[in-house]
Design a protein that fits this description.
Shape: globular
Strand content: 15-25%
Strand order of the largest sheet: 8-9-10-1-11-22-12
Number of strands: 24
Radius of gyration: 24 Å
Distance between the termini: 41 Å
Length: 524
Amino acid sequence: MKRILTLILSLALTAGVLAGCGGGNTAATTTPQTGSKDSVVIAMGTTSEPEAGFDPAYGWGAGEHVHEPLIQSTLTVTNTDLTIGYDLATDVQVSDDGLTWTVKIRDDVKFTDGEPLTASDVAFTYNTVKAASSVNDFTMLDNAEAVDDTTVVFHMATPFSIWPYTMAIVGIVPEHAYDPATYGSNPIGSGRYILKQWDKGQQVILEANPDYYGEAPEMKQVTILFMEEDAAFLAVQAGQVDLAYTSATYSDQSPAGYSLVAYDSVDNRGFNLPVIEGTLTGDVLVRRAINIGIDRQEMIDNVLNGYGTPAYSVCDQMPWYNPASEVEYDPEGAAALLDEAGWIMGADGVREKDGVKATLNLLYPTSDSVRQALCADFANQLGELGISCTMEGVGWDTAYDRAQTEPLIWGWGAHTPMELYNIYHTIGDTGTAQYSPYANSTVDSYMDQALQCSDLEESYELWQKAQWDGTTGVTQDGDIPWVWLVNVSHLYWVKDGLQVAEQKIHPHGHGWSIVNNVDRWSWS
């Protein structure tokens, strides 16, 4: 009965949104139209709506839902293979010491109010984002300086080889028309699209920028509806959207006129295994046993309905991924490691050492049913190895602190090697990493060297060594302070005839990444 009521309420919500009912920030709400050959209607989750609006200084394009802004231009872009390409930039040079980045930009770009975009706007944007952003960390930047109209120089506080990845997500705002109080709701940009309408809590309508300096968008209008998952599926059944996000829960459905499409992701799920001496996970042999004793494919088949890939690191398939992270499922080998560690199987099926039972309390966020299901599967598999597990749902207000002593199932994955740094590098003078107690000075050193490297591609090898250098690292033969389980495929219902352009691997966050190249979509 509860689910029926939920569906009824969702249907009412769907009808209200599609009919243009409800509040908004415009005098009238445009009803999205499907079927046009140069427009598309997309359903995204409600959490994809940017709370602070479309201002790069307050999270637009950053955070968990990293993407290249559609409304603003960026200096660089990430290509489908995650290498770096250019948008506004025409040339990027870095000094040998890594402290000065000189970027040349195009001279033919105008904002949608007709004013030219110059290096002053670029410098203003970065200095503003550094001062105001609560989402991205810009401590590596000292300041940005416009040398002339087409040259901007970034003076770094510390070398940061992966700066081009940061430049791919920072949209450029106009210095002459920027007001932090209003820009998020009424952004002026120079990108592929103009924000035509934003009905908060309901929808966003984008229209192609007629003065865009690049190739004209195929899709002239893009309507994005913010909907709960049930409502999005009802909209699909009614034929009222052209593409809608969904989850494995609905993957066995067959709505007429739609196909289910799965896109690969580095949106991974995994547990931290606190490295605390005297505890079960403080023993590296136990951590290694857990890593090879987990059947990842079973999790994909039974929890994700087949829509996922095994995860072995936080950066699977990225240019900086080290294949040494990959392991084979080996329950016999896992049992042998536990035996070697002195954890002997008891008559009750639970291992014991020095009179202490092998037990773990596994934490999962109460807001995520998929993580809860993965946690339960993980607990069952550890039970087969002789490790007795309990489960506990927690809120994020306490999860970060609890994870310092207990395993928590996390979601990570980004288009930058900083994800490795954020998870494994010791923080300040704390002596441990940020999200789980772990420290390895050699791993830290490789990541520090990678950031200080003056060549981006050369830095990849150092990031790989931080994972495993043949002697130490964070992989199976090293410290293995985290065990990675699955990369969750991002699922969408796509209306017949809609040709979605080739996607680069999606990062964590089932949101704006799908529309990074919506300008290249088409109808057949």
